[in-house]
Fold this protein.
Amino acid sequence: MTTNNELLPCPFCGSGAIIQEHHPHEHSDWLVKAGMPETSPGSFTIECARCECGMIHETREGVVKAWNTSQPAMPADADPLQGAVDWLVHALPEGMSTAHQVCARLMIGHNRAERLVGIARRRIEVE
């Protein structure tokens, strides 16, 4: 965990975030199928406590810098997943089409990823 003053609010919903260290480990089969390597030498992740978006990097300094330089936060009353849907509208035509790929990229659960993919596909059809 980290101190509150080290991390800026979530770039998608404006909520607080948690940083965690992950020691070297093997990835599950579904993560490997989604494009992750079979093993990880260790990493640091930051995850929003509200909308569950996240980032991963090899170093603590790297993940904090990436998180703190992300796009500006949305208003606190905005849909916490709107940023993820906006990103998916652009990512789906470029080949990120399965919920497994979205799970790995956004570090979210499969059910939430399926909902996001469905929302983004419907939005693409309307546009």
The chain has one domain: 17-126. The CA atoms of residues 37 and 66 lie 21 Å apart.
